[in-house]
Amino acid sequence: MVSIDDFPKIDAHIHFNADRKTVPKLADKYGFDLLTINTEVPEFPPIDKQQQLAVKYRETENCKLYHAATIDTENILEPGWAGRAIKQIKEAMNNGACGIKFWKNIGMSIQRPDGSFLMLDDPELKPVFEFLEQQQIPVLGHQGEPKNCWLPVEEMTVQSDKDYFSAHPRYHMYKHDEYPDYWRHIEARDAVLARHPQLQFVGLHIASLEWSLDEVEQRLDRFHNMAIDLAERISHLYYHAAENRDRVIRFFEKYQDRIIYGTDIIDDPAADPADIIEELTHRWESHWQFLATNKKLSSPQVTAPFQGLALPQSILEKIYRTNAIHWYQLSQK
């Protein structure tokens, strides 16, 4: 059986926000390179600081730290914003970024004066997507939330969603009809991909379709320049595997060239480094057990036990490394 140490890997979705070597050193131990994704989260450092950290730690020990940049959405509704965003993208790419991320604040928090929400397919963003398509710059998209966010707590499929939305009702969209519904986020993303058929796009978090492999397949079959990552949604795959393990295996076999591994670990500068090490170690090891072995497994995230997928090494190497290199155009120098 293949071991986690048998080949080099990339955790292609982290948030490297702390000015320290904790995560790169652990990555070196486990044979991982890293890709940090700059994101305009209010609790994160400013996006220019995130990029500076990525550049500073680009080479640490034997670990490479790649980074994807993002755009500043302040004043996005004002004339001239698209030109400024394109300038920002050019600067980020010149500074070594491998792609540009669009976050869920587009669709879930930015509002027009009339109270309507700015969506990903709105005209303000069209020139930016045209530029990204023309330049063949990879786009990373996190649109909306897990579908559980729009369900009653008792109908949610994984425990972390139940816990989070119970504790944070203001973010539980089931309780907030004034926000765009789940499908509006999916439709907006799909409209962008249809309008820009050459756009290189990675749908983060299983493209926000984690609840249905059938829905994911429909998009991958329709949009041939689209891939997905698994970040923070592997627990949903546990749920699917408990219901129909063979179905999940067939999905990985069919789309083995379009699935990218990532954890979504956040190296919060306010957190104890020991806690970061413990959590990331747990994620890497438990995810490997699920993807690479046939062991009987359980998780506090789901109620039913499930069995590991025992994917062959040829597929594991794609998921854990070569797909990220291809889709994000990562230099191996």
Description of the molecule:
The structure is a single chain. With 333 residues, the chain is an alpha/beta fold. The chain has a single domain, classed as TIM Barrel, CATH 3.20.20.140. The protein contains 12 helices and 12 strands. The protein has helices at 22-30, 47-56, 81-94, 105-108, 126-135, 159-167, 182-195, 204-207, 213-222, 234-254, 273-292, 313-327, and strands at residues 9-16, 32-37, 59-60, 63-70, 100-102, 139-141, 201-203, 226-229, 259-260, 265-267, 296-297, 306-307. Strands 1, 2, 3, 4, 5, 6, 7, 8, 9 and 10 form a 10-stranded mixed beta sheet that branches. The protein has a two-stranded antiparallel sheet with strand order 11-12. β8, α10 (234-254) and β9 form a beta-alpha-beta unit. α3 packs parallel to α5. The model has no long low-confidence stretch (mean pLDDT 97). Residues 79-329 form the Amidohydrolase-related domain. Residues 206-233 form a coiled coil. Keywords: Coiled coil, Hydrolase, Lyase.
